[in-house]
Amino acid sequence: KNIVILISGGGSNMAAIVRAAQRDNWRERFGARVAAVVSNRADAGGLAFAREQGIATEVVDHKAFPSREAFDEALAAAIDSHQPALVVLAGFMRILTPGFVARYQGRLLNIHPSLLPAFPGLHTHQRAIEAGCKFHGATVHQVTAELDYGPILEQAVVPVLPHDTPEALAARVLTQEHQIYPRAVAELLPAL
Ligand code: GRF
């Protein structure tokens, strides 16, 4: 059972999942492994980590394609070359076409740095602070055609502190993401 993880940047959520797979023996227990890390950016820091771990990496540069659909086609081809049982979006900063989502629906996860359905979209930490939220957090959900929406698998809550900054709040949320994403993936493995 191959897991393919999509990143666009540092890939700290991808790394947390890779470490959980190693630490918790996903291969022996579930016949599952992180088979590939795919990025839309050749300079994504997470690619170096994946390569150090001996994990296959692919880069599909969205700027090299004339349309969103053409990019998604190439992205799906790169993903499918690893026969994925599960596709995990982890800090993947591209909006996917309905055709791509339909291709993987039911085996496509995302993590979003807010307590969905609150604050879909970008700049979630700044918006939570500006709204005066006392709590904020992260959500792991099944991806559907509607952006940052879909069946929720895991959530984590963090306090918003007085005079909090978006950066401090983001770091507090990210720590929780690294807990709930590996847990959400692990919970799915027996059923894959
Ligand atoms: C972070 O803002 C995280 O909250 C969101 O994607 C961004 C990068 O995460 N999920 P990662 O370090 O690339 O996993």
Automatic annotation (TrEMBL):
This is Phosphoribosylglycinamide formyltransferase. The record marks 148 as: Raises pKa of active site His. Belongs to the GART family. Catalyzes the transfer of a formyl group from 10-formyltetrahydrofolate to 5-phospho-ribosyl-glycinamide (GAR), producing 5-phospho-ribosyl-N-formylglycinamide (FGAR) and tetrahydrofolate. The gene is purN. GO terms for molecular function: phosphoribosylglycinamide formyltransferase activity. It holds the Pfam family Formyl_trans_N. Residues 1-185 form the Formyl transferase N-terminal domain. GO terms for biological process: 'de novo' IMP biosynthetic process. Its EC number is 2.1.2.2. SUPFAM superfamilies: Formyltransferase (SSF53328). (6R)-10-formyltetrahydrofolate binds at residues 68, 93-96, 110. GO terms for cellular component: cytosol.
